[in-house]
Amino acid sequence: MADVIVRDSNGTQLNEGDSVTLIKDLKVKGTSETIKRGTLVKNIRLTGNPGEIECNTKQVKGLVLKTEFLKKA
Predict the structure, then answer these.
(1) Which residues pair with 4 in a beta bridge?
(2) 36-57: string of b/e by CB count within 10 Å (b at 16+)?
(3) CB-CB contact of 56 with 45 (8 Å)
C-alpha cells in the first residue's frame, strides 16, 4: 500500500491523517443524510484504492469517499 499515490481533485497528494474539504454536496447511500459542500473531514485513512479514502463525519461513521469530490484542506 506504500506505493499507491492518492490524489485529490486538484492533483495534490493525500496522506494518512490529512484533512480534506468536500467540493460538492454528496448524498449518502443507505441514509437520508446529505453531506454539504465545504464540510471539513479530518483524519482520513487511505484504502488500497487510489480513488477512495475512508473517513468519519459528524453525520456518518465509516464513510468511503471518492477523491474526485475532495480537496486537501
Answers:
(1) none
(2) eeeeebeebebeeeeeebebeb
(3) no
What pLDDT digit, counting tens, does each position of 14-37 carry? 999 999 999 999 999 998 999 999
- Give the Cβ contact number of residue 20 at 10 Å: 24
C-alpha distance across the termini of the chain, in Å: 23
Q: Is the pTM of this model over 0.85?
A: yes
> How many Cα neighbours within 13 Å face the side chain of 19?
6
31, burial (CB in 10 Å: exposed 0-12, middle 13-18, buried 19+) = exposed
